[in-house]
Automatic annotation (TrEMBL):
This is Transcriptional regulator. One of its GO terms (molecular function) is DNA-binding transcription factor activity. SMART domains: HTH_ARSR. Residues 2-98 form the HTH arsR-type domain. It holds the Pfam family HTH_20.
């Protein structure tokens, strides 16, 4: 995967995760696919507003949409959360190294 493709994928995932409403929608979808009406019941916003959030989640590839007759079922795609986890994992390693070096310095000063 090229840098640009990887960056675009990461950008879309983090954009989707940036909003608390979208994170709450993902939590609801953890229990199984749901339509817009079922999802909208859990929020104090209009159905079109929820649909806009779903569109951003779909663009970030965190959900897929299945057309079943007149209903559109939204399915969680949890494997895409690995994109965010990998990106954040770099910083885990970075801080682990920094803290290990700090520990060595502190221990060296104790001698």
């Amino acid at each position: 995967m090229t840098y640009q493709a990887s960056h675009d994928l990461t950008q879309g995932v983090f954009r989707a995760l940036a909003d608390p409403t979208r994170r709450a929608i993902l939590q609801q979808l953890r229990d199984g696919p749901r339509g817009v009406n079922a999802l909208a019941q859990g929020f104090e916003m209009s159905r079109p507003a929820v649909a806009k959030h779903l569109k951003i989640l779909e663009e970030g590839r965190l959900i897929t949409v299945e057309q079943r007759g007149r209903e559109r079922l939204n399915h969680l795609q949890p494997e895409m959360l690995a994109v965010a986890q990998r990106w954040l994992g770099f910083f885990d390693a970075f801080w682990d190294d920094k803290l290990a070096n700090l520990k060595l310095e502190v221990e060296r000063d104790d001698d």
